[in-house]
From TrEMBL:
Required co-factors: a divalent metal cation
Domain named Transposase Helix-turn-helix: residues: 35-83
Keywords from the named record: Endonuclease, Hydrolase, Metal-binding, Nuclease
Molecular-function GO terms, alphabetical: endonuclease activity; metal ion binding
Transcription as UniProt keyword: no
Residue ranges of domain DDE Tnp4 in the record: 102-251
InterPro entries (alphabetical): HARBI1_dom (IPR027806), Transposase_HTH_dom (IPR027805)
Species, as recorded: Micromonospora sagamiensis
Protein name: DDE superfamily endonuclease
Length: 260
């Protein structure tokens, strides 16, 4: 197999952050000699997450075995995921916002043996459900652990405790019609139903402005999916949560002016 130099659209700060985590973990373990140093392992993991390069291609490019490449990527993802903000930490950040935007997205996966829970009737494909919170500028604030794709957005938000957490911050949150009946501080557009087949002019105006605000939140979903590994997960769906949390940490390092 041939290999060639390539680029990863990330800053050196992101690479250094992950490399420092790997060095600290190696020092803690006092493990044996590794084929790649911490910087090269960090670059391998970032190429997988950002560019979506397969483990086989990375193994060829970095001159390691497929098993070693897989182990390096898994180790890096676990280290990053361990430093991800939980909902309580995210809530404190949300409390400083003028308003928040809540949306759900489906991350496609390969079919698995027990595929029924992962089939989304809305998207007509298999995947996992991830809830995303954005600020008023469309910046990604937090992404939830992954649930099977068949789970409805409102059910997913309640499962993660998002509705109660957002209400406790007393910050108005805009969400689409999938969150009808959420209550609390969540605001959804007016919806036609059996006893209200038509919306009034005022309700249509409210829905129009509501949609303009929610459209900004789509930037957060787009930001999450710029990490090409999420184009289609080819691993166990149980690994989706760790991958999303790892990406969230890297995103905050990449965009923060004063990273921790």
């Amino acid at each position: 197999m041939l290999s060639y130099p390539s680029a990863v659209a990330l800053s050196s700060r992101t690479l250094n952050h992950l490399a420092d985590l790997i060095r600290a973990e190696r020092a803690r373990r006092r493990g044996r000699w590794r084929r790649l140093d911490a910087g090269r392992q960090a670059l391998l993991a970032l190429a997988h997450l950002r560019n979506g390069d397969t483990i086989t291609r990375l193994a060829c490019g970095f001159a390691v075995s497929v098993t070693t490449a897989w182990r390096y990527v898994r180790e890096a993802i676990n280290l990053l995921a361990a430093h991800a903000d939980d909902l309580n930490a995210a809530t404190r950040r949300i409390g400083r916002l003028a308003y928040a935007i809540l949306d759900g997205t489906l991350i496609p996966i390969d079919r698995v043996a027990d595929q029924k829970p992962y089939y989304s009737g809305k998207h007509k494909r298999h995947g996992v459900n991830v809830q995303v919170i954005a600020d008023c500028a469309g910046r990604l604030i937090w992404a939830s652990p992954a649930l099977p794709g068949a789970v409805h957005d409102l059910t997913a938000a309640r499962t993660h405790g998002l509705i109660d957490a957002l209400t406790s911050t007393n910050v108005m949150t805009f969400a689409d019609k999938a969150y009808q009946g959420a209550g609390g501080s969540v605001r959804t557009p007016f919806k036609r139903h059996r006893y209200r087949p038509r919306l009034s002019r005022r309700q249509k105006t409210v829905n129009h402005h509501h949609a303009k605000i929610r459209a900004i939140g789509e930037r957060a979903v787009a930001t999450l999916k710029t990490w090409k590994v999420l184009a289609k997960l080819r691993c166990c769906p149980g690994r989706a949560t760790a991958i999303v949390q790892a990406i969230l940490v890297l995103h905050h390092v990449q965009t923060s002016r004063n990273p921790r």
